[in-house]
Predict the 3D structure of the following.
Amino acid sequence: MRPPFRILVGLSVAGLAASSLTACGPATPEPDPAAEALASALESGDFSAVPLAETTAEEAGDVVVQAYSPMGEIPHAHTVTQVAVDEEEQDGVKTATATLHTVWDVDETENDFAYDTRAVWELDAEDERWELRFAPEILAPELGEGESLAAQTTSGERGEITGAGDEPLVTDRPVVRVGIDKTRAESSEWEASARELAGLVGIDADAYAARVEASGDKGWVQAIVLREDGREVTDEQIAAIPGAIAQPDEIPLAPTREFARPILGTVGAATAEIIEESEGRIEAGDQVGLSGLQAAYNADLAGTKGVTVTRNSAEGEPVAELYASEQTDGQDLELTLDADLQTHAEAALADVEPASALVAVRPSDGAVLAAASGPGSENYNTALLGRYAPGSTFKVVSALAMLRGGSTPETEVECTPTTEVDGKSFKNFDAYPASALGGIPLSEALAQSCNTVFVDAGNDVGAAPLAEAAAALGLTGEDTTGAGAFLGAVPDDSTGTELAANMIGQGVVQASPLGMATAAASVANGATVTPKLVLSPAQDATSEDSSAEASPSPDAPAEPASTLTAEEAESLRTMMTGVVDHGTLVDLKGLPGGAVIGKSGTAEYDDEENAHAWTIAIQGDLAVAVFVETGDGGSHTAAPLVADFLTAAAE
């Protein structure tokens, strides 16, 4: 509740001239405690602690319920601002008057609906107490018998979610609300119609029939909302069912049901939990963001409600308007997503059964152009929140740490079939080419993905420099997407076998598809990239699925613990060129759209040798990461998805 010194809009009653506590003899009790009890009772509806004249506590409480219930859940507070014993008696009875200040916190603005009222007390000399002359006008000025205060709210237009080039991603699109209107069918037909309609639109028949049965005789019971565009259920099929109708409407929707759904989220009727947590700001029937960015930025997208308060007659008809505020439309949420690239990303993943993701970042400015999570992710935001061992794609990080330790792409390293660290054996992947064993340049070790070279380098590199290299590639920076994302985690205190495993992207290092796309973008950019997704409004927001801290504003990214230099990036690009030219990603050679460089990765995650499949790639001003939770290696499972995406993007 806002304090009463803020701007007050409403009605007032003139203050009393008499000062408190005057004209009372030594034996007269103070009226102040009784007045404070009244203020509490007006908030709680319980008058048991208020001395009353010629009425009961139950009767007074009933009047409060009747008068205030039409205000809904709007919070209200009552403050005693003045108590004065009247100078003259009324009909031989000593009286006192209290002034009460009432404030209704009707909306989120600085203005409140506020007014002053008076309560008159009479002194019961025998019992030596002040008793309230209860009357409706104590509750609100000029409130008569049986009258009430009533609030009506209106909502502005919900803001759109736009992408690159201000293209609407979520905007009002035509739908039909399909359901049973019980006034259009005989009561004997209701259950059968409900079940037939449920079967037609593919919802639970028992549950829907029960809802239809439980509604009133004149009820309209919605079964489902269908997109107008491309719906298979026709108006003729609906009309053939007694009582079934399709009502045209428009609601905020993405281009398709699946489009960026884990990121954008959904809009729907407020749940009981949301209503309770809103403390009166959200009411039953309000359309609110239920997940994703729609929920995280709901206050911005929804705008503010307009509120009108009226004094209503005993019959519920408005008698006078007491307060009115205009609703405001919601703000648009501006994202970096490119609608075409997002569509291409989702098409590439459409047939992938395990959890999967494809993220595309523009290296020149860090804009997240696509962030798709495949159908196997079951609406989880794998693209931004997945935490997985990145496998050999992490060797780009390890290679940077080695470069900083004095190596160059030409430095000769020894690639052995196996190696051992503190009693634990490490080996190369089964199809590793024998021709790339022995003394080879570091660039060839990356191109062919020699595990033993990077495992053996772990002790010389050290955990702290490895963590600094990850930071320089943007893998462990603070989340500045505005969407509550996870990038990666690389400890700076690993030793022994853990450090050795970390060097090849296993051990305890973690990355999201966004994190690995960011690392590739940093290499392409020649400097550390900070990814961004939400451009405006710039504010903190976290996904409901994220355990990360609130994201800082995209406009003020924190400085990374270490930054990438142009020279370091050039060396990494040289080595990643070999991966596509003659290494593990030769299938990405010759794609339309220009030369591609990259790195594949495989990370076993159980004793049965099931493995995550990764590929990161760079083509011009586009950096891509593809992840499949269970696959047949990065080059076999993830790389073809990269090829599909880049080919579609080039068309």
Summary: The first helix runs from residue 32 to 44. The radius of gyration is 34 Å. Residues 161-301 form a domain with the Penicillin-binding protein 2a (Domain 2) fold (CATH 3.90.1310).
